[in-house]
Amino acid sequence: MSGLIGKKLGMTSFFGANGKYIPCTIIEAGPCVVTQVKTKEKDGYDAVQIAFDEKKEKHVSAAMKGHFSKAQTTPKRKLVEMNFDDQRNLGDIVTVDLFAEGDLINVVGTSKGRGFQGVVKRHGFSGVGHSGSHGQHDRERAPGSVGASSDPSRVLKGLRMGGRMGGNRVKIQNIEVVKVMPEKNLLVVKGSVAGAKGSYVLIEK
């Protein structure tokens, strides 16, 4: 499985060859630098560490400066390990040329954090409506009864309730690559991708 680290830039739309409207996400995909090659003999497993996005040197620790200097590259913000289908060496540059139009890819991102939300927004509860029956009139978005009778006399684990929503790792599979712009390091994919504008995403081939 090969891939790249990218940054979500926003959404746009395209018209396909048949005139069909296609909502798309624009991702700045790479270029990424190979900063470490792990082997089974030395590290216990095979993997390639890639890095993306420039970082000011004054914000980098001495240990990380040494790590990046081994790969003869400038300090980077985001580092990710992945397995590549072909052989990669320290200091290699991985570009958006890895992908072609029509490819199906997976995109991993972190969903937008929504903070503390109630059951209607978090789990899609319908609420109790506006009838105001049984003497209640101000509980339209309440979850209702959460307990049970004398058996089991407790609230069961995993019950859907209000709580923090979002901020989760989300993988969207089999997204079609609509366009590749190697001169600008841009990748246009069909549909939406998890995360806010400017957030990092992992693109898996």
Q: How many H/I helices?
A: 3
Overall average pLDDT: 89
Number of strands: 12
Structural class: mainly beta
Kindly estimate the percentage of residues that lie in beta strands according to DSSP: 35-45%
The side-by-side strand order for the widest beta sheet comes to: 1-2-11-10-7-12
What gross morphology would you assign? extended
Give the N-terminus to C-terminus distance in angstroms. 6 Å
Order of helices and strands: EEEHEHEEEEHEEEE
Radius of gyration: 23 Å
Summarize, please.
The chain is mainly beta. The chain is 9% helix and 40% strand.
What can you tell me about this protein's structure?
The structure is a single chain. The chain is mainly beta. The protein is 9% helix and 40% strand. It contains three helices and twelve strands; from the N terminus they run βββαβαββββαββββ. It has helices at 40-43, 62-70, 119-123, and strands at 3-15, 21-29, 32-38, 47-54, 76-82, 93-94, 104-110, 115-117, 163-165, 169-181, 186-190, 200-204. The strands form three sheets. Strands 1-2-11-10-7-12 form a six-stranded antiparallel β-barrel. A four-stranded antiparallel β-sheet has the order 5-4-3-6. It has a two-stranded antiparallel sheet with strand order 8-9. The longest helix has 9 residues, at 62-70.
